[in-house]
């Protein structure tokens, strides 16, 4: 067995072995069936739902519906956590299972980084607000810039 230029094993006759079987039906909409080995949680879909949906070629009307659902039903991102891989598989053509996994892993990483940044900003803002209102609560006066009566 030789290797192709992409590093995939190459069989005699020029056929290459990839991680996707020949029946890759991704990108065919409702006719696509997510393979068992790709069924897992999709944190990228959960944490970056509207942006992720656009990148996965979800139709604009559906994205608008998601926007409404997220506003009305805040648990909708958890639906995407469980169904995100299926949605991505149905709406976008994937060259291989490995490409699909890699792209979804990157979305998950980006989602967690942004979530951590958001939590950090909330903590910083909360500490700032507390320091701002603490003098009012203690009855010592209001000094929003912390200048101490200059």
Report on this structure.
The protein contains 5 helices and 2 strands, in the order ββααααα. The chain has a two-stranded antiparallel ribbon with strand order 1-2. The protein has a domain at 40-124. Helix 2 (49-55) packs antiparallel against helix 3 (60-72). The protein is elongated. Strand 1 (2-3) and strand 2 form a beta hairpin. Helix content is 55%, strand content 3%. The longest helix has 42 residues, at 97-138. It has 150 residues and is an all-alpha fold. The chain has helices at 43-47, 49-55, 60-72, 76-91, 97-138, and strands at residues 2-3, 9-10.
Secondary structure layout plus pairing:
Blueprint: E1 2-3, E2 9-10, H1 43-47, H2 49-55, H3 60-72, H4 76-91, H5 97-138
Antiparallel strand pairs: 1-2
Helix pairs in contact: 2-3
Fraction in beta strands? under 5%
What structural class do you assign from the helix and strand content? Answer: mainly alpha
Largest sheet: 2 strands, antiparallel
- Which outline best applies? elongated
Using only C-alpha atoms, the radius of gyration works out to 24 Å
Strand order in the largest sheet: 1-2
Quaternary state of the chains: single chain
By DSSP, the count of extended strands is: 2
* Count of discrete alpha- or pi-helical segments spanning 4 or more residues: 5
């Amino acid at each position: 067995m030789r290797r192709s230029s992409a590093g995939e094993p190459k069989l005699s006759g020029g056929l290459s072995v990839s991680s996707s079987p020949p029946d890759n039906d991704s990108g065919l909409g409702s006719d696509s069936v997510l393979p068992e080995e790709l069924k897992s949680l999709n944190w990228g879909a959960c944490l970056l739902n509207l942006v992720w949906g656009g990148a996965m070629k979800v139709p604009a009307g559906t994205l608008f519906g998601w926007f409404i659902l997220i506003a009305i039903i805040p648990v909708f991102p958890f639906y995407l956590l469980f169904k995100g891989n299926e949605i991505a598989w149905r709406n976008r053509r994937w060259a291989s299972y490995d490409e699909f996994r890699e792209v979804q892993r990157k979305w998950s990483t980006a989602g967690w980084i942004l979530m951590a940044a958001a939590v950090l900003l909330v903590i910083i803002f909360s500490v700032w607000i507390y320091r701002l209102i603490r003098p009012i609560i203690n009855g010592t006066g209001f000094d929003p810039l912390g200048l101490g009566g200059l």
